[in-house]
Amino acid sequence: MAACAGVGAALLGCVLLYCSMLRPAGAQLYRNRYDGDQVLRITPRGHGEVQFLKELFQNMTVDFWQPSSASLICEDSSVDVHVGHRRTRTLKTQLQQAFIHYEVLISNLQKEMEKQTHSWSSRKRRSELQYNYEVYHPLGEIQRWMFEMNRTYPHLVDLFSIGRSYEGRPLYVLQLGNRSRHYRKAMWMDCGVHAREWISPAFCQWFVREALGSYQHDSTMRRLMNHLRIFVMPVFNVDGYHYSWKTDRFWRKTRSKNAKYHCRGVDANRNWKVKWCDEGASRHPCDDTYCGPFPESEPEVRAAARFLRKNRKRLQAYISIHAYAQMLLYPYSYKYATIPNFNCVETAAQNAVTALYSAHGVRYRYGPASTTLYVSSGSSIDWAYRHGVPYAFAFELRDTGHYGFLLPEALITPTCTETMRAVRSIALGLLRKCTS
Ligand SMILES: *[C@@H]1O[C@H](CO)[C@@H](O)[C@H](O)[C@H]1NC(C)=O
Ligand SMILES: *[C@@H]1O[C@H](CO)[C@@H](O)[C@H](O)[C@H]1NC(C)=O
Ligand SMILES: *[C@@H]1O[C@H](CO)[C@@H](O)[C@H](O)[C@H]1NC(C)=O
Ligand SMILES: [Zn+2]
């Protein structure tokens, strides 16, 4: 099927069925909701097994981690699914009977989460004088941090809101760059489009810290800040992110209500007005890849699109940070065709991935989203590219499924350090002219 991304489309996904309360420190995490839940990696061989799995997941609801829906299951590509504790045995039995290969990636999701958050109570997040970039922060802390950055670096930062979320939260963007200089080129980076990808907002914060902190002594960063305006949106899907802390750790979509169904939310990376709701997107409001009732139906997408349209003349790069898969993707997502400025973009991607590798030897695959990951329509990179942004990238950060969305806080530093090198490389490239 066309939705299958040729060779290595392995590694991605999600589905979501549960809810609970997070009480930081002490009390039961998410009301013990994920006790006994497992994450399985299933690898179908051949067309028959693919069909079997697609049918099986019509009968049995699971939370797709990678790829993000059953329709994207392909031959010889693995599928990571989060299975509720009541269904693990049934699912395994059915796979065994069909001789389909699987392995258990996480044997008890609740325990894994508790292991990781064991130290939360002793961490004293709020009393720390220095903001801790090596832990995940809830929305309120991130917003306070943005105000703090705005207050501390008035000559390099401007914080403003581009609109409001479905639930009425401000959509903050930090503008970085020497404010006393004119700029002709700008770059946009958003994080936290998908709520459960917590490493993503962590990276946006890391990026801002590095950009501001190294401005004085790092001549490269100074060049970037003097010649570029960098717009950073640390949490795009604010409602969903808040919900992933408070209620459901594995929530992906926005939180908008649907007129006909009780299921909430739209996939904010399927809601853009570019080949909207075609292949790789779902029309069903309960699906994790739901495209929404119409393009830009989500206030978060509408606000970002309006801002990007307004600044399109200067925007040279659009970067969206996701997880997980370890990939650097560029247009097109919705079709297999090659983009007109392929050579420039491919070179930029190759340089970025090489820079990333130089930090810790972590390998990223890179290429057009459609052939490297899977086909998806209504994505933000395709939209940005169509609106004239020559360099549009989506990162899928660590890992490749060992922890999936539960990437431990101990891996924030290496992940952000290496990603910083890649983003820096892309930004620096904008100051040169590509003529190929
Ligand atoms: C799905 O359910 C239908 C109807 O109950 C059944 O006929 C079919 O065999 C099931 N398929 C799988 C793969 O479990
Ligand atoms: C950020 O700081 C500037 C002054 O440098 C101020 O005008 C602006 O209102 C601040 N942003 C927010 C959201 O408070
Ligand atoms: C910003 O640019 C101006 C003009 O080039 C320069 O004088 C100033 O020092 C720069 N600001 C900072 C914080 O470096
Ligand atoms: Zn994502």
Architecture overview:
The protein has 436 residues and is an alpha/beta fold. It folds into two domains: 4-115, Metallocarboxypeptidase-like (Alpha-Beta Plaits); 126-245 and 293-430, Aminopeptidase (3-Layer(aba) Sandwich), CATH 3.40.630.10. It has helices at residues 46-59, 88-97, 109-117, 120-123, 139-152, 199-213, 219-227, 238-246, 299-310, 342-360, 369-372, 380-386, 412-429, and strands at 13-14, 38-43, 63-66, 79-83, 101-106, 157-164, 170-176, 185-191, 228-233, 315-323, 327-330, 365-368, 391-397. An eight-stranded mixed β-sheet has the order 6-7-9-8-10-13-11-12, with helices on both faces. Strands 1-3-4-2-5 form a five-stranded antiparallel β-sheet, with helices on one face. α6 (199-213) crosses α13 and α10 runs antiparallel to α13. The chain is globular and about 65 Å long. It starts with 12 loop residues before the first strand and ends in a 7-residue tail after the last helix. Zinc ion binds at residues 193-194, 197, 322.
